[in-house]
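Students often ask why we bother encoding 3D structure as a string. The short answer is that it lets us treat folding as translation between two languages. Here is a chain of 83 residues written in the first language.
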Amino acid sequence: MGHLGRLQLVGRVTYYLGWICLICGALVHLGIGRAAFTAMSLTKRNLFEVAVVCFVICIASELRATTPAESEARSTVKKPLAA
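And here it is in the second language, the structure alphabet:
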């Protein structure tokens, strides 16, 4: 697996983890399973902050994977051969 594949994997995992945190935050907000989340010391704010951080990591990983690195950009440029 190359570095682009790893970046896309990190982006995908953090994207879904962010959604899971948002759903858990909504459940806490609605009062469903509040005891379970308070037992783990998770508040709505903590879940929201984790979700935002996951989405930021996801965006950064995907942008980095789609933007060619400087070394890759140099390797694709063909240099003229001396005659």
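Translate back mentally: The chain has four helices and no strands. Keep this in mind for the problem set.
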